[in-house]
Amino acid sequence: MDSEKAEVILREHVRLCSDLHELFIEEGRIMRATGQPPGEEFLEKKQAFLPVLDKGLELLQQIGEDPQRFSPGVRSLVKECRDKIMKLMMLDRENERLLLKTSLPPKMKEAYAKVGPGQLAKAYGRYAK
User: Fold this and answer.
1) Count of domains forming the chain
2) What is the residue range of 42's domain?
3) pLDDT per position as a tens digit, 18-75
């Protein structure tokens, strides 16, 4: 594949990653604001991305794995894509934690509530003797 076509595919992938990043941010915002998992409407919106991601993966597989054979501009796009994917993975992991937290029964939520500054010292203080 020539560098020009690879560049077009990578630029599209960067755009797709940016769109997905915004979706993940929205998902986290919903869970923080409501304390609940996202509703059906949002999940449908998220699921609509799957065919687009599949197509993007097919295009990326056409490029190949050797970025050295491309121009420096394309190599920088490869790095940008990797960076964006890493950010997506980190944000997705954060959203998974939020989802777990929002899905817990009320009594378990209380157990994982934020701890006050002196509570830990007080709890462990009786063992320090």
Assistant:
1) 1
2) 3-104
3) 999 999 999 999 999 998 889 999 999 999 988 988 888 888 887 766 555 677 778 7
